Structure prediction request, 267 residues.
Amino acid sequence: MGFRCKSLLCLFLLVWLVFLQEASARQHYYNVSGLASRKQVSGCNLFQGKWVFDPSYPFYDSSGCPFIAPEFDCIKYGRPDKQYLKYSWKPDACSLPRFDGVSFLGKWRGKKIMFVGDSLSLNMWESLACMIHASVPNSKTTYARKDPLSFIIFEDYGVTLYLYRTPYLVDIVREDVGAVLNLGSINGGNAWKGMDALIFNSWHWWTHKGKSQAWDYIRDGSALYQDMDRLVAFNKGLTTWANWVDNNVDPAKTKVFFQGISPTHYE
Prediction:
């Protein structure tokens, strides 16, 4: 039996693969809302497989990518081991095509891709940009990094990669009592409209307490709470997000993904 694909890198590769197949229109994928249904028509379950050693990896040298934030540039700041960079995901029933940045840019010419969420989305945004940059290192780019919206434009192809930082997806607003996590509000959603692909994630910050908690109270409709069961709050917040998607996204134009949970990466 193979392993289940759970890591950040595997999620990224699988999202990228669906990007590639959608753009080329060679294959059809079932609705990606359920893990069990994420299969090709050919019967290859992309999520069932194993990690295999691949000496041709990684796709890029992080020291040569201008888009990586210092806190995520492990090699630059002295991580001694590099073996972890040499593994690729291999589904049991098929082989994934190797990423080709030039082909990707050609197929996504003139389109917009946005990652929305916390540091998991940030890492994937940076990684996709670096993979593309390694294929076209001399391509003109426009790069702006701000909070909450950052973007990278590959000018020669008109491909724009956006990042919208919002760890909870729903809003944190300022009220008289302090910072309030509003489970029914997504004012930031206006920035998400008009994309060709939206990749969302959330969860990690919902569990934070004490000094790492980003809010003082939770609002659920007219009710204000100092705290509540975090899974209940997460469910309510994601229901608001799902309603936003249903009301604002045209599935004929925009591909929507929701990623899994990122591991804790704080000491």
